[in-house]
Amino acid sequence: MLSLFRLHSPNSRFILPLLITALMVICYPLFTPFVVSYSQLWVNLPFILLGAVIILSNKQPQAQSGFIAIVMLVAYCVILYWLQTSLANTDTKLIFCLLATLLPINLLLLRFITLPKLLSWGTAALLLLVIIQCSIGATISYFYHTDFENWQQIHLFTYHNISSLPLILILFNLAVCCSTGALAVKYHRRIDRHIFVCSLLATTTFIFFHYPFISSSAFILCAVFLLIDLGYCHYQQSFRDPLTQLADHRALAQALPLLHHDCTIAVLDIDNPAAIIDKHHPQAISDIQASIAAILMKQTQLSPHLYFVAQQFIMIFEHKKITDCQAIIEQLQHAIGSEKHTIVPIIIEPQPQQTATKVKKPRKKAIKVSISAGMCSANTEQTAAVVLQQAIEVLRIARQKKKKQQIYIAENNDDTLCQR
Predict the structure, then answer these.
(1) 371-377: strand order across its sheet
(2) What is the rounded distance in angstroms from the CA atom of residue 289 to the CA atom of residue 271?
(3) pLDDT (tens digit, 9 = 90+) per residue, 306-318?
(4) Nearest alpha carbon to residue 406 among 301, 267, 250
(5) 190: Cβ–Cβ under 8 A, 6 or more apart, which residues?
(6) What's this model's pTM, rounded to 2 decimal places?
(7) Which residues 6+ apart lie within 8 Å of 157 measured at CB?
Protein backbone atom coordinates (compact mmCIF):
# COMPACT_ATOMS: atom_id res chain seq x y z
CA MET A 1 0.00 0.00 0.00
CA LEU A 2 2.84 2.36 0.82
CA SER A 3 4.40 1.56 -2.56
CA LEU A 4 1.38 3.11 -4.27
CA PHE A 5 2.09 6.40 -2.53
CA ARG A 6 5.76 6.23 -3.52
CA LEU A 7 4.83 5.60 -7.15
CA HIS A 8 2.47 8.56 -6.94
CA SER A 9 5.06 10.99 -5.59
CA PRO A 10 5.79 14.18 -7.62
CA ASN A 11 9.06 12.77 -8.99
CA SER A 12 7.40 9.51 -10.02
CA ARG A 13 4.54 11.36 -11.73
CA PHE A 14 7.13 13.04 -13.96
CA ILE A 15 9.86 10.41 -14.39
CA LEU A 16 7.76 7.25 -14.78
CA PRO A 17 5.87 8.33 -17.94
CA LEU A 18 9.11 9.65 -19.45
CA LEU A 19 10.92 6.39 -18.71
CA ILE A 20 8.18 4.16 -20.09
CA THR A 21 7.82 6.31 -23.23
CA ALA A 22 11.59 6.22 -23.83
CA LEU A 23 11.61 2.42 -23.40
CA MET A 24 8.71 2.13 -25.84
CA VAL A 25 10.58 4.12 -28.51
CA ILE A 26 13.87 2.24 -27.97
CA CYS A 27 12.31 -1.23 -27.93
CA TYR A 28 9.63 -0.58 -30.54
CA PRO A 29 11.51 -2.19 -33.48
CA LEU A 30 11.66 -5.43 -31.46
CA PHE A 31 7.89 -5.49 -30.98
CA THR A 32 6.99 -4.51 -34.54
CA PRO A 33 6.53 -8.14 -35.75
CA PHE A 34 4.13 -8.81 -32.86
CA VAL A 35 2.16 -5.64 -33.59
CA VAL A 36 1.92 -6.49 -37.30
CA SER A 37 0.69 -10.01 -36.48
CA TYR A 38 -2.19 -8.60 -34.42
CA SER A 39 -2.67 -5.41 -36.41
CA GLN A 40 -6.49 -5.48 -36.42
CA LEU A 41 -6.66 -5.81 -32.63
CA TRP A 42 -3.93 -3.20 -32.20
CA VAL A 43 -5.83 -0.68 -34.32
CA ASN A 44 -9.14 -1.16 -32.47
CA LEU A 45 -7.76 -1.40 -28.92
CA PRO A 46 -7.42 2.42 -28.40
CA PHE A 47 -11.15 2.82 -29.07
CA ILE A 48 -11.98 0.25 -26.38
CA LEU A 49 -9.54 1.57 -23.78
CA LEU A 50 -10.27 5.28 -24.30
CA GLY A 51 -13.99 4.47 -24.21
CA ALA A 52 -13.44 2.79 -20.84
CA VAL A 53 -11.66 5.95 -19.63
CA ILE A 54 -14.65 8.06 -20.66
CA ILE A 55 -17.11 5.76 -18.85
CA LEU A 56 -15.03 5.59 -15.65
CA SER A 57 -14.44 9.36 -15.63
CA ASN A 58 -18.17 9.91 -15.41
CA LYS A 59 -18.08 8.34 -11.92
CA GLN A 60 -15.33 10.68 -10.70
CA PRO A 61 -15.94 14.03 -8.90
CA GLN A 62 -14.49 15.95 -11.87
CA ALA A 63 -14.94 14.83 -15.47
CA GLN A 64 -12.00 16.54 -17.19
CA SER A 65 -10.27 13.19 -17.68
CA GLY A 66 -13.23 12.02 -19.74
CA PHE A 67 -12.97 15.12 -21.92
CA ILE A 68 -9.24 14.47 -22.39
CA ALA A 69 -10.09 10.94 -23.55
CA ILE A 70 -12.67 12.37 -25.99
CA VAL A 71 -10.10 14.75 -27.49
CA MET A 72 -7.55 11.93 -27.77
CA LEU A 73 -10.18 9.70 -29.37
CA VAL A 74 -10.97 12.35 -31.99
CA ALA A 75 -7.24 12.81 -32.67
CA TYR A 76 -6.85 9.04 -33.10
CA CYS A 77 -9.76 8.98 -35.57
CA VAL A 78 -8.09 11.75 -37.58
CA ILE A 79 -4.83 9.77 -37.64
CA LEU A 80 -6.61 6.54 -38.58
CA TYR A 81 -8.83 7.86 -41.36
CA TRP A 82 -6.91 10.83 -42.79
CA LEU A 83 -3.22 10.22 -42.15
CA GLN A 84 -2.66 6.70 -43.45
CA THR A 85 -1.27 7.87 -46.81
CA SER A 86 2.23 9.14 -47.45
CA LEU A 87 3.18 12.45 -45.85
CA ALA A 88 4.69 13.42 -49.19
CA ASN A 89 1.08 14.21 -50.15
CA THR A 90 0.48 17.90 -49.49
CA ASP A 91 -3.05 17.39 -48.11
CA THR A 92 -1.86 14.71 -45.68
CA LYS A 93 1.10 16.84 -44.59
CA LEU A 94 -1.18 19.81 -43.93
CA ILE A 95 -3.62 17.75 -41.82
CA PHE A 96 -0.65 16.25 -39.95
CA CYS A 97 0.72 19.71 -39.10
CA LEU A 98 -2.72 21.00 -38.07
CA LEU A 99 -3.25 18.02 -35.77
CA ALA A 100 0.20 18.41 -34.21
CA THR A 101 -0.66 22.06 -33.51
CA LEU A 102 -4.26 21.81 -32.34
CA LEU A 103 -4.06 18.70 -30.14
CA PRO A 104 -1.58 20.18 -27.58
CA ILE A 105 -3.55 23.44 -27.54
CA ASN A 106 -6.81 21.59 -26.84
CA LEU A 107 -5.20 19.56 -24.06
CA LEU A 108 -3.87 22.71 -22.39
CA LEU A 109 -7.27 24.38 -22.81
CA LEU A 110 -8.97 21.57 -20.89
CA ARG A 111 -6.71 22.30 -17.92
CA PHE A 112 -8.38 25.69 -17.41
CA ILE A 113 -11.97 24.58 -18.00
CA THR A 114 -13.97 23.30 -15.02
CA LEU A 115 -16.47 20.67 -16.15
CA PRO A 116 -18.32 19.03 -13.24
CA LYS A 117 -19.79 16.06 -15.11
CA LEU A 118 -19.48 14.30 -18.44
CA LEU A 119 -23.13 14.35 -19.53
CA SER A 120 -23.70 18.09 -19.64
CA TRP A 121 -23.85 21.07 -21.95
CA GLY A 122 -20.09 21.36 -21.50
CA THR A 123 -19.67 18.09 -23.39
CA ALA A 124 -21.81 19.36 -26.24
CA ALA A 125 -19.83 22.63 -26.35
CA LEU A 126 -16.52 20.74 -26.37
CA LEU A 127 -17.63 18.41 -29.16
CA LEU A 128 -18.90 21.41 -31.13
CA LEU A 129 -15.53 23.12 -30.70
CA VAL A 130 -13.69 20.01 -31.91
CA ILE A 131 -16.03 19.68 -34.90
CA ILE A 132 -15.44 23.33 -35.79
CA GLN A 133 -11.69 22.80 -35.60
CA CYS A 134 -11.94 19.73 -37.85
CA SER A 135 -14.08 21.68 -40.31
CA ILE A 136 -11.60 24.56 -40.38
CA GLY A 137 -8.79 22.06 -40.96
CA ALA A 138 -10.71 20.41 -43.80
CA THR A 139 -11.43 23.82 -45.35
CA ILE A 140 -7.79 24.86 -45.14
CA SER A 141 -6.74 21.53 -46.62
CA TYR A 142 -9.18 21.90 -49.52
CA PHE A 143 -8.49 25.50 -50.50
CA TYR A 144 -4.90 26.12 -49.47
CA HIS A 145 -3.05 22.85 -50.07
CA THR A 146 -1.15 24.25 -53.07
CA ASP A 147 -0.11 27.37 -51.15
CA PHE A 148 0.90 25.23 -48.18
CA GLU A 149 3.42 23.33 -50.29
CA ASN A 150 5.26 26.56 -51.11
CA TRP A 151 4.86 27.88 -47.59
CA GLN A 152 6.30 24.77 -45.92
CA GLN A 153 9.35 24.83 -48.18
CA ILE A 154 10.10 28.39 -47.09
CA HIS A 155 9.07 28.42 -43.42
CA LEU A 156 8.69 24.84 -42.16
CA PHE A 157 12.07 23.17 -41.89
CA THR A 158 11.76 19.39 -41.87
CA TYR A 159 14.74 17.12 -41.28
CA HIS A 160 13.47 13.82 -42.66
CA ASN A 161 16.40 11.90 -41.22
CA ILE A 162 15.08 12.88 -37.75
CA SER A 163 11.30 13.14 -38.14
CA SER A 164 8.54 13.93 -40.61
CA LEU A 165 7.28 16.62 -38.24
CA PRO A 166 8.59 20.13 -38.97
CA LEU A 167 11.24 21.32 -36.54
CA ILE A 168 9.16 24.23 -35.24
CA LEU A 169 6.31 21.86 -34.33
CA ILE A 170 8.74 19.46 -32.64
CA LEU A 171 9.93 22.32 -30.44
CA PHE A 172 6.34 23.44 -29.81
CA ASN A 173 5.20 19.96 -28.73
CA LEU A 174 8.26 19.48 -26.53
CA ALA A 175 7.60 22.85 -24.89
CA VAL A 176 4.01 21.81 -24.15
CA CYS A 177 5.27 18.52 -22.67
CA CYS A 178 7.70 20.35 -20.38
CA SER A 179 5.00 22.81 -19.28
CA THR A 180 2.45 20.11 -18.50
CA GLY A 181 5.14 18.05 -16.75
CA ALA A 182 5.96 21.02 -14.52
CA LEU A 183 2.26 21.41 -13.68
CA ALA A 184 2.00 17.70 -12.85
CA VAL A 185 4.95 17.99 -10.45
CA LYS A 186 3.85 21.22 -8.80
CA TYR A 187 0.12 20.45 -8.42
CA HIS A 188 -1.37 17.21 -7.14
CA ARG A 189 -4.27 17.29 -9.61
CA ARG A 190 -5.49 14.43 -11.73
CA ILE A 191 -6.09 16.70 -14.72
CA ASP A 192 -2.42 17.78 -14.78
CA ARG A 193 -1.14 14.20 -14.69
CA HIS A 194 -3.45 13.14 -17.49
CA ILE A 195 -2.62 16.11 -19.73
CA PHE A 196 1.10 15.48 -19.23
CA VAL A 197 0.81 11.80 -20.18
CA CYS A 198 -1.40 12.54 -23.20
CA SER A 199 0.77 15.37 -24.52
CA LEU A 200 3.94 13.29 -24.01
CA LEU A 201 2.61 10.29 -25.94
CA ALA A 202 0.98 12.46 -28.61
CA THR A 203 4.35 14.18 -29.15
CA THR A 204 6.01 10.76 -29.39
CA THR A 205 3.45 9.77 -32.02
CA PHE A 206 4.08 12.88 -34.13
CA ILE A 207 7.89 12.73 -33.91
CA PHE A 208 8.14 9.00 -34.70
CA PHE A 209 5.23 8.94 -37.13
CA HIS A 210 7.32 6.95 -39.63
CA TYR A 211 7.16 3.89 -37.31
CA PRO A 212 4.38 1.44 -38.30
CA PHE A 213 1.41 1.43 -35.87
CA ILE A 214 3.13 3.99 -33.62
CA SER A 215 -0.11 5.92 -33.15
CA SER A 216 -2.01 2.80 -32.01
CA SER A 217 0.80 1.81 -29.64
CA ALA A 218 1.17 5.28 -28.12
CA PHE A 219 -2.59 5.77 -27.70
CA ILE A 220 -2.93 2.30 -26.12
CA LEU A 221 -0.18 3.19 -23.66
CA CYS A 222 -1.85 6.54 -23.02
CA ALA A 223 -5.21 4.87 -22.25
CA VAL A 224 -3.49 2.35 -19.94
CA PHE A 225 -1.85 5.22 -18.03
CA LEU A 226 -5.22 6.97 -17.67
CA LEU A 227 -6.98 3.80 -16.52
CA ILE A 228 -4.31 3.07 -13.90
CA ASP A 229 -4.47 6.62 -12.58
CA LEU A 230 -8.27 6.59 -12.49
CA GLY A 231 -8.11 3.31 -10.57
CA TYR A 232 -5.73 4.91 -8.08
CA CYS A 233 -8.04 7.91 -7.71
CA HIS A 234 -10.96 5.56 -7.07
CA TYR A 235 -8.81 3.81 -4.46
CA GLN A 236 -8.08 7.19 -2.86
CA GLN A 237 -11.81 7.96 -2.62
CA SER A 238 -12.18 5.14 -0.09
CA PHE A 239 -9.79 7.08 2.17
CA ARG A 240 -11.94 10.23 2.16
CA ASP A 241 -14.01 11.63 4.98
CA PRO A 242 -17.65 11.58 3.78
CA LEU A 243 -18.45 14.95 5.39
CA THR A 244 -15.57 17.10 4.16
CA GLN A 245 -14.26 14.97 1.25
CA LEU A 246 -10.76 15.42 2.70
CA ALA A 247 -8.34 12.58 3.32
CA ASP A 248 -9.13 10.80 6.58
CA HIS A 249 -7.10 9.20 9.39
CA ARG A 250 -6.23 6.13 7.31
CA ALA A 251 -4.66 8.26 4.58
CA LEU A 252 -2.79 10.26 7.22
CA ALA A 253 -1.45 7.09 8.83
CA GLN A 254 -0.07 6.00 5.45
CA ALA A 255 1.41 9.39 4.60
CA LEU A 256 3.23 10.09 7.89
CA PRO A 257 5.99 7.44 7.45
CA LEU A 258 6.81 8.89 4.00
CA LEU A 259 7.33 12.47 5.13
CA HIS A 260 10.73 14.13 5.08
CA HIS A 261 12.31 15.31 8.32
CA ASP A 262 12.08 18.85 7.01
CA CYS A 263 8.36 19.35 7.55
CA THR A 264 5.95 21.47 9.57
CA ILE A 265 2.54 20.23 10.69
CA ALA A 266 -0.38 22.51 11.55
CA VAL A 267 -3.59 21.46 13.31
CA LEU A 268 -6.63 23.73 12.84
CA ASP A 269 -9.77 23.68 14.96
CA ILE A 270 -12.92 25.78 15.33
CA ASP A 271 -13.00 28.18 18.28
CA ASN A 272 -15.66 27.60 20.97
CA PRO A 273 -17.50 24.66 19.37
CA ALA A 274 -19.50 24.08 22.57
CA ALA A 275 -20.99 27.58 22.37
CA ILE A 276 -22.02 27.00 18.73
CA ILE A 277 -23.72 23.72 19.66
CA ASP A 278 -25.56 25.32 22.59
CA LYS A 279 -26.80 28.19 20.42
CA HIS A 280 -27.82 26.08 17.42
CA HIS A 281 -27.63 22.27 17.37
CA PRO A 282 -24.91 19.56 17.22
CA GLN A 283 -25.19 19.26 13.42
CA ALA A 284 -24.12 22.92 13.13
CA ILE A 285 -20.46 21.98 13.73
CA SER A 286 -20.61 19.51 10.84
CA ASP A 287 -22.05 22.18 8.53
CA ILE A 288 -19.29 24.61 9.49
CA GLN A 289 -16.59 21.96 9.05
CA ALA A 290 -17.86 21.16 5.55
CA SER A 291 -17.83 24.88 4.71
CA ILE A 292 -14.26 25.29 6.00
CA ALA A 293 -13.16 22.22 4.04
CA ALA A 294 -14.50 23.81 0.85
CA ILE A 295 -12.38 26.91 1.53
CA LEU A 296 -9.28 24.83 2.23
CA MET A 297 -9.70 22.75 -0.92
CA LYS A 298 -9.52 25.90 -3.02
CA GLN A 299 -5.86 26.15 -1.98
CA THR A 300 -4.59 23.69 -4.60
CA GLN A 301 -1.00 23.89 -3.33
CA LEU A 302 -2.17 22.45 0.01
CA SER A 303 -4.44 19.69 -1.31
CA PRO A 304 -1.84 16.86 -1.31
CA HIS A 305 -1.26 17.28 2.45
CA LEU A 306 -4.67 18.24 3.78
CA TYR A 307 -6.50 15.89 6.18
CA PHE A 308 -9.56 15.82 8.42
CA VAL A 309 -8.93 13.68 11.49
CA ALA A 310 -10.74 13.61 14.85
CA GLN A 311 -12.80 16.73 14.01
CA GLN A 312 -9.62 18.71 13.25
CA PHE A 313 -8.01 19.90 10.03
CA ILE A 314 -4.38 18.83 9.64
CA MET A 315 -2.04 20.49 7.15
CA ILE A 316 1.47 19.27 6.36
CA PHE A 317 4.08 21.59 4.85
CA GLU A 318 7.23 20.06 3.39
CA HIS A 319 10.45 22.04 2.91
CA LYS A 320 8.92 25.27 4.27
CA LYS A 321 10.09 27.49 7.08
CA ILE A 322 7.73 27.87 9.99
CA THR A 323 7.39 31.61 9.33
CA ASP A 324 6.18 30.88 5.79
CA CYS A 325 3.71 28.33 7.14
CA GLN A 326 2.49 30.84 9.72
CA ALA A 327 1.78 33.37 6.95
CA ILE A 328 -0.30 30.78 5.07
CA ILE A 329 -2.27 29.91 8.20
CA GLU A 330 -2.95 33.59 8.87
CA GLN A 331 -4.34 34.01 5.36
CA LEU A 332 -6.59 30.99 5.87
CA GLN A 333 -7.76 32.34 9.22
CA HIS A 334 -8.72 35.60 7.55
CA ALA A 335 -10.51 33.82 4.69
CA ILE A 336 -12.44 31.52 7.04
CA GLY A 337 -13.23 34.35 9.48
CA SER A 338 -14.61 36.61 6.76
CA GLU A 339 -16.81 33.89 5.26
CA LYS A 340 -20.41 33.37 6.39
CA HIS A 341 -20.95 29.67 7.03
CA THR A 342 -24.43 28.33 6.42
CA ILE A 343 -26.07 26.19 9.10
CA VAL A 344 -28.86 23.96 7.86
CA PRO A 345 -31.68 23.74 10.45
CA ILE A 346 -32.95 20.41 11.72
CA ILE A 347 -36.45 19.84 10.37
CA ILE A 348 -38.75 18.19 12.93
CA GLU A 349 -41.54 16.14 11.43
CA PRO A 350 -44.99 17.31 12.61
CA GLN A 351 -46.96 15.12 14.96
CA PRO A 352 -50.29 13.67 13.75
CA GLN A 353 -52.22 16.13 15.86
CA GLN A 354 -50.39 19.03 14.15
CA THR A 355 -51.63 18.22 10.66
CA ALA A 356 -54.45 20.73 10.96
CA THR A 357 -52.05 23.57 11.59
CA LYS A 358 -49.35 24.68 9.20
CA VAL A 359 -45.82 23.97 10.46
CA LYS A 360 -43.29 26.62 9.46
CA LYS A 361 -39.95 25.41 8.13
CA PRO A 362 -36.99 26.93 9.94
CA ARG A 363 -34.69 29.11 7.89
CA LYS A 364 -31.03 28.52 7.23
CA LYS A 365 -28.65 30.61 9.30
CA ALA A 366 -25.30 32.07 8.31
CA ILE A 367 -22.71 32.72 11.00
CA LYS A 368 -19.07 33.70 11.20
CA VAL A 369 -16.54 31.60 13.05
CA SER A 370 -12.84 31.75 13.80
CA ILE A 371 -10.20 29.04 13.95
CA SER A 372 -7.02 28.58 15.95
CA ALA A 373 -3.98 26.57 14.93
CA GLY A 374 -1.25 24.60 16.64
CA MET A 375 2.02 24.19 14.75
CA CYS A 376 5.20 22.24 15.20
CA SER A 377 8.27 21.89 13.01
CA ALA A 378 10.35 18.72 12.89
CA ASN A 379 14.00 18.25 13.60
CA THR A 380 16.28 15.43 12.48
CA GLU A 381 15.54 13.33 15.57
CA GLN A 382 11.74 13.52 15.42
CA THR A 383 9.34 11.44 13.39
CA ALA A 384 6.33 13.01 11.69
CA ALA A 385 3.99 11.24 14.15
CA VAL A 386 5.76 12.91 17.09
CA VAL A 387 5.57 16.31 15.39
CA LEU A 388 1.84 15.83 14.79
CA GLN A 389 1.23 14.88 18.41
CA GLN A 390 3.14 17.95 19.64
CA ALA A 391 1.07 20.23 17.37
CA ILE A 392 -2.17 18.70 18.70
CA GLU A 393 -0.97 18.96 22.29
CA VAL A 394 0.15 22.60 22.08
CA LEU A 395 -3.22 23.54 20.59
CA ARG A 396 -5.10 21.64 23.28
CA ILE A 397 -3.15 23.25 26.13
CA ALA A 398 -3.28 26.75 24.72
CA ARG A 399 -7.00 26.54 23.88
CA GLN A 400 -7.72 26.27 27.59
CA LYS A 401 -6.93 29.99 27.75
CA LYS A 402 -10.10 30.51 25.66
CA LYS A 403 -8.52 32.95 23.23
CA LYS A 404 -9.71 33.09 19.64
CA GLN A 405 -7.99 33.06 16.28
CA GLN A 406 -4.46 32.46 17.55
CA ILE A 407 -1.51 30.48 16.24
CA TYR A 408 0.32 28.41 18.84
CA ILE A 409 3.78 27.15 17.96
CA ALA A 410 5.62 24.30 19.67
CA GLU A 411 9.35 24.43 19.00
CA ASN A 412 11.92 22.22 20.66
CA ASN A 413 9.21 20.85 22.97
CA ASP A 414 8.60 24.34 24.42
CA ASP A 415 5.09 25.73 24.05
CA THR A 416 5.15 29.29 22.76
CA LEU A 417 2.12 31.50 22.23
CA CYS A 418 2.35 33.51 19.02
CA GLN A 419 -0.38 36.14 18.78
CA ARG A 420 -1.35 37.73 15.52
Answers:
(1) 306-309, 312-318, 263-270, 371-377, 407-411, 414-418
(2) 12
(3) 888 888 999 888 7
(4) 267
(5) 60, 62, 64, 65, 229, 230, 233
(6) 0.67
(7) 166, 167, 168
